[in-house]
Amino acid sequence: MEVNLSGSVVLVTGGVRGVGAGISRVFLDAGATVVACARRPADTPVDSGGRAVDFLPCDVRDPDSVREMIDAIVAKYGRLDTVVNNAGGAPFAMAADASANFHAKIVQLNLLAPLLVSQIANEVMQRQQSGGSIVMISSVSGHRPSPGTAAYGAAKAGVDSLVSSLAIEWAPKVRMNSVIVGMVHTESSHLHYGDADGIDAVARTVPLGRMAAPEDIGHTAAFLASPLASYLSGSSLLVHGGGEKPAFLEASTADVPAVSGHG
Fold first, then answer.
1. Which of 65, 82, 142, 259 is 20 to 30 Å apart from 120, CA to CA?
2. Residues tagged active-site
């Protein structure tokens, strides 16, 4: 079985760079009409197989901007079947040093903005006979310590909580799910992991031996949006290559460190 989204209309927020561009390309390959939004267009077009995204400028933190964008999508295409809330991120800043305004902006972008986009999209989807699907792009930072990006991690934990609540509130018309993303190799990886040697060294810490490609995240999002996942709602799927090895395994001097019990 293959994911076939021909005839569907998909909005990918932040869908022209990094992980978002990979998500957009996967949905294009699956046959969907893809609308990608960001505050500014990409330096190079996001396309695949001779088809390109329809770009709309939007500040996903601004209610008027979001409503104008979604109204434009419905006016042009007549429907909105899937939203992938991908826009987000955070610069490195230790919590004790960051201002209250900094923390508020991080939470607004990574928690309140996807809630806002979802609310307005839900209004459209509830009126459609086929309903719709909303996929939140979350992060492992919401499920393990996130030093240097504490507010971001807290916001992503909130996203996964939102999914479990909205899956109940908006059922049966709208399915809500999230993708909990681990480390991804993008054009910005050097900002997080250093030079090529640093990126390779970090990749070796992943049990599967590599970081995710943006398309890995896109494939998961496309699956969740597809009829193959028609009974999935309120779920959070881990896409992290097996996770992170426990630190005590490296520190232990035992020949075969115990991995069970209470520590």
1. 142
2. 152
Q: Nearest-CA neighbor of 11 among 119, 97, 86?
A: 86
Could you tell me which of 22, 130, 40 has the C-alpha nearest to residue 86? Answer: 22
List, in sequence order, every beta strand (DSSP E) within 90-144.
132-139
**SS3 state at 32:** coil
- More confident position, 134 or 189: 134
pLDDT, position 193? 80
CATH of the domain at 144: 3.40.50.720
- In this structure, are residues 13 and 34 in contact, taking their beta carbons and an 8 Å threshold? no
Q: What is the mean pLDDT of residues 242-257?
A: 81
Task: Confirm whether 262 is domain-assigned.
Answer: no
> Quick one: pLDDT at residue 256?
59
Is residue 173 within 8 Å of residue 123, measured between CB atoms? no
Could you tell me the pTM of the whole model?
0.94
- The full 3-state SS of 174-191, as one line of letters, equals EEEEEEEECCECCCCHHH
How many domains does the chain contain in total? Answer: 1
Residue 89: which residues within 8 A CB-CB, separation 6 or more? Answer: 109, 110, 152
